[in-house]
Every structure is written in structure tokens, then in C-alpha cells.
Write a structure and sequence with these properties.
138 residues, mainly alpha, 434 Repressor (Amino-terminal Domain), 2 domains, 57% helix
């Protein structure tokens, strides 16, 4: 019976024997897997076997983090604040888009909602989807 897979070489067998890839079930296993990934990456030049093995370990880390450490979804004004910080901008940098400094502060403090036009302008400015600036919780 043919599986279509090549017989792994000795180096790949050594990689999977030394640190067998298994589903990650807790933080200790996550850290151990990340350390193993880092030790291989620190070698410098990687073989095809290294890259294949890292891909498998990376998928296991990704799967664990997606389930146990989801990235919180932020929207609306909270996203706007995060975008300002990430872009190293200040509220006054939004004055040309939102009209005046008072309006910017009112929006950032949650006292005033963004209009459809303001949402579109901010989305264009930050190169994001306008739907991300609509706060569905309020």
C-alpha cells in the first residue's frame, strides 16, 4: 500500500523522537513547545526537516492559543483608542477628521457617538473596515 509519503530521514526522526509533537493541553506544555521552537530557530540556517517540524509545532501552538488564549475583540471607541496608541497619534491628530478637539474628546470619552460619515473617514484614515468602528454593545 502506498501512502504518498516519503520515509522520513534520520534527522527528522530524531526531531520527533526528542520532542514528539502532541496536542498542547496546558500552559506548561505550551511553554515547552515554544522553547523547543526557539531552540531550533536559534540554530540559524534551517533544513527542510527543521521547517517541516516547526510547521507542525507552530500549528499545535496556534490551535492551543486559539482555544485557550483568544485575542479579545475590540470595536468602536475602544478600537479607535487602540489605533491611536498603535499609530503613536494623539487625539488632536483626529481633529481634521472629526471636526474639532472638543468633538474628538467627547467621542473618546464615550459622551458622543461617531456619525456614519466620521466612521467612514476614520476607516479610510486607518485603512480598516468601517464595521470595526461601530460599537455594537451600546
Amino acid at each position: 500500500m502506498t501512502t504518498g509519503l516519503k520515509t522520513p530521514n534520520n534527522y527528522y526522526i530524531e526531531l520527533i523522537t526528542t520532542f514528539p509533537p502532541r496536542p498542547i493541553t496546558n500552559e506548561t506544555e505550551l511553554i515547552a513547545t515554544q522553547n523547543r521552537i526557539n531552540s531550533i530557530l536559534d540554530k540559524g540556517s534551517l533544513t527542510k526537516e527543521d521547517r517541516d517540524y516547526l510547521k507542525v509545532l507552530g500549528m499545535l501552538v496556534y490551535e492551543y492559543e486559539e482555544e485557550h488564549e483568544p485575542i479579545p475583540t475590540i470595536r468602536g471607541v475602544e478600537l479607535l483608542k487602540a489605533l491611536l496608541e498603535e499609530s503613536q497619534l494623539y487625539p488632536q491628530d483626529l481633529v481634521p477628521i472629526l471636526g474639532n478637539e472638543f468633538m474628538v474628546l467627547e467621542i473618546l470619552n464615550g459622551k458622543c457617538k461617531l456619525s456614519e460619515n466620521q466612521i467612514q473617514e476614520l476607516a479610510n484614515f486607518f485603512h480598516i473596515s468601517p464595521s470595526l468602528l461601530i460599537d455594537n454593545e451600546k
